[in-house]
Amino acid sequence: MESTELITLVVVGVVLVIGAVSFFAGRIGVAAPLALTVVGVIVGAIPGIPHFEVEPSLVLTVILPPLLYAAARQVPFVDFRRNLRVIGFLAIVLVVVSAVLVGALVHLLWATVPIALAIALGAVVAPPDAVAATSLGKRLGLPPRIVTILEGEGLVNDATALVLLSTMLAIVTTSAESPNGWMIALTFLWAVVGAAVIGGLLGVAAVALRRRITDPVLDAAVSLVIPFLAFLAGETVHASGVVAVVVAGIVVGNQGAYRIRASFRLAEANTWRTVTLLVENAVFLFMGFQLWPVVTEVLAQNQLLGTLGVAGLVILLLVGIRFAAMPPLLWTIRRRYRQRAARADKTQERFSAVTEEDFQQRAANMRRLGIRQSPLKSITRGLRARFGIVTKKDKAARDDILARLAELERNPPPEPVEIDPTMRARFSKMFENFRKRLDQQNNDLTAERDQALGWRDGVILGLSGMRGVVTVAAVQTIPEGQPMRESLVLIAFAVAIVTLVVQGLLLPPVVRRLRPAGDDPGSERTELYELRKLLKDAGDTAVAAAATKAESAGSPLEPKALADVQAESDRWVNHLEVWANADLADPDNHVAQYQHLRRVQLVAERDALRDVYERGAFSSEAIDAMRVALDAEETSLDTLDGRSAE
C-alpha cells in the first residue's frame, strides 16, 4: 500500500474512531477525552500495530494554537476579569510552586538529574489541561463561575509552564548551575505583557477586518488563520505565543459579537466546533496510543518499576499541592470581598448624590486650578488602584487636590466658571463613564456575593487538575542525551494519563454527591426576561427617534410599519414573560405545548417546501430563501429547548 493511501486510511480510521467513541461515551456518561485516552492505550497495546512519532513542535505550534483560540473565543471577558486574581493564582503561582516542588522531589530521589532539568519536568506536569476539565464541567452542570475559573486557568497556565520549561532547558543546555531569579522574572514578564499586547492588537485588527468582509467563506478563512498568526507573532519577539493566542481569542470572541455579522459568527462557531471535536479528541487518542513505546524504552533500561514509583509520588504531590492551596485561596477570596464591599459602601455614600451638573462644576473647577493629568497617568493610577497599590504619595496628591477644590468651592471667584458646549459634552461623557464604573463595581460585588465559592467548590476545583496534551507534548522537547530522559518522559505520560482517567472518573460522582450551588434556572429565565425588556426599551427609543427624524425631514414613516415593528418587539417580550413564569416541572406547561406545536408546524412547513421544490413550482432562489428562514426558526426553537431543559 502506498504511503498516501496509508495516511488517508489512518486519517479516516481516526475520524471514525473519534466519532464512535464520542457517541458511545455520551451514552454511558463518560467524557470523550477520558474514553479516547483509554481506547488509545488499548489500541497501542495490540501486537503488530505500527507506532509512529509526531514531532512535539508540531503539537505545540500547529495543534495547540487553534484549540486554545477556540476555547478563548467562548470565555466571557466580564467573567474572566472578575475572576482574574483566582485565575492568576492557579495559573501562575500554583504552577510555579508545583514545578519547583516536583523538581526538588525528583532531584532528591534521582541525584543524577540536575535541579534545572528536574524543575523542567515539574513545569511539564504542573499545568492542568483546559479541555478535559471544562468538557467535564459543562457536561456535569458545574456552576458558571467554576467553569470560568477552570477555562481561564487552562488557557493561561500553559504559558507559565512553557516559559518556565524553556528557561530551565536553556540553563541545562548552557551548563548553568543556578538560574538568575531576576532574569527569569523579567523573561516571564515580557512573555506575558508582550504577548498580551500582540494578541490584543491582532484581535482588534481581526475584528476590524472581518467587519468589512462580505464573503462568509473568506471570513471563515480569516478566522482559521488568526490563532497561527498570533502564535507566530508572539514567538517571533520571544514572548509567549500561547498568551498571544488566548488574548486574541478573547478579544475576537467578545468584541466580534457586536461587530461581526451574525450569520458569519454562526458559521464560524460551527467551523470551530468541528475543528475542536476532531483535533482535540485526536490528541487524546494519540496520547494514549503513544504510551507503550515510552514504556518499552524505559523497560529496556530496567528502570520501569523505579520510574513508576517516582511517577506515583509526583502524582500524589501534585494532587496534594492543589488541594492544599484551596483553603487559603477561598479565605483570600472572602477576605477581599469584605474589603471591596466596605470600600464600595464608602464610595456609594460619597458619590450617590452627585449629579451631572455637580460633576460638570467640579471638573470645571479642576481646570480652573490647573489640575490636569495625562491619559497615561490616569490609566496607570486606575490599574494600581484596581490591584490595591495606593502609595502615600498617591494619598497626599489626592488630599491636596480635594483641599484645593474645597477651598475654591468655599470661596468661589466673582465670575463663575464658563463651560463652553464642547467642554460640556466632554464632561458629560466623563460623567457617563464615571457612573458606568460605579455600576460595574456594584455589579461585580453582586456577582461575587451570588456566586460565592464554598468548600464544595474548593473540593471540585482541587479535583479538576487533570493533565493532558501540553504535558505529553512538552516533555518530549527535553533534548536527547539528558540524564534519565526516557524515565522523565514516562513520568509525564503517567501523570497525564493517570490524572486524566482517575480524576476524570472520580469527578462526576463527587459533583453529584456534593451538589455545588449553581444558578437557579428560574432566576435565569427571569433575568433573560428583564434583559429583553431593557433591550426593548432601547430599541423603542431608537425607533421613536428615527420616526421623529423622518417626520422632520418631510418623509414620515408609515404608521403600519411602526406598528409592525412594535408588535414584533412585544411578541418577543410576551413570549419570554410566559417562559419565565412557567412551571417547567409540569410536562404539560404552556412552554412545552408551544414548543411541540411549533415543531409540528415546522415539520409540516418543511414537507410542503420539499413538495413544491420537487414539483418545480417556485424558483430555486425562493426555495433557498425560505429554507434559510425555516432554519432560523428551528435554531431559535432549539435554543429555547436547551434553556428549558436546564
- List low-pLDDT spans: none
Rg over CA atoms: 29 Å
- CA-CA gap between termini: 51 Å
| Overall mean confidence score, pLDDT | 81
* Helix-strand topology string: HHHHHHHHHHHHHHHHHHHHHHHHH
Number of helices: 25
The share of residues in extended strands comes to under 5%
Structural class: mainly alpha
What is the makeup of the main sheet?
none
What is the count of β-strands? 0
Q: Roughly what percent helix?
A: over 70%
Oligomer: single chain
Inertia-based shape? globular
Task: Quickly list its features.
646 residues; mainly alpha
Write the layout of secondary structure elements.
Layout: H1 3-28, H2 32-44, H3 56-73, H4 77-82, H5 84-109, H6 115-125, H7 130-140, H8 144-173, H9 181-212, H10 216-236, H11 241-259, H12 262-289, H13 291-300, H14 304-351, H15 356-368, H16 375-386, H17 392-410, H18 421-450, H19 455-463, H20 469-475, H21 485-514, H22 521-552, H23 559-581, H24 590-615, H25 620-645
Q: Can you walk through the features of this model?
A:
The chain is mainly alpha-helical and 646 residues long. Helices cover 81% and strands 0% of the residues. Helix 5 crosses helix 6 and helix 20 runs antiparallel to helix 21. The radius of gyration is 29 Å and the shape is globular. It starts with a helix and ends with a helix. 30% of the residues are buried. The mean pLDDT is 81.
Short structural summary:
By secondary structure, the chain is mostly helical.
